[in-house]
Design goal:
Length: about 120
């Protein structure tokens, strides 16, 4: 595909991740989606997840970040919006802050699904 679009493969993986999340947390009504807004692909994936979640009857709380300092406030927004789970769109920025994100998710008891296998943790 072109640089602005997303490959079908990426979207398929995103769909699978969403399914995985729903297996872990079946009654999610509100899904927070964290993505790096500086990164076009991340924004596309966020939109895709938003559409898919809507089809499944979920409401999406987009929490965009642009730098490390935005991560903690993003978790506060997700918690304030009463999100039941978190979907993290992987990018270099989020990868670099992996521990902060995993720990913050645990701190607010937000079950989360991440882009890569080594990120996967189920907080129940």
């Amino acid at each position: 595909g072109n640089a602005t679009g997303m490959s079908m493969q990426t979207l398929e993986v995103a769909g699978k991740r969403l399914e995985l999340l729903l297996e872990v947390v079946p009654n999610v009504r509100r899904l927070a989606v964290m993505a790096d807004l500086n990164f076009v692909q991340a924004t596309s994936e966020m939109n895709y997840v938003q559409e898919s979640a809507a089809k499944l009857g979920m409401e999406v709380v987009p929490v965009g970040i642009r730098r490390t300092e935005d991560i903690r406030p993003a978790f506060d927004r997700a918690a304030a919006a009463k999100a039941g789970a978190l979907y993290v769109v992987i990018s270099e920025l989020l990868n670099a802050n992996r521990l902060l994100i995993v720990n913050s998710a645990q701190a607010v008891k937000l079950p989360a699904v991440y882009g890569t296998q080594d990120w996967v943790r189920s907080f129940l």
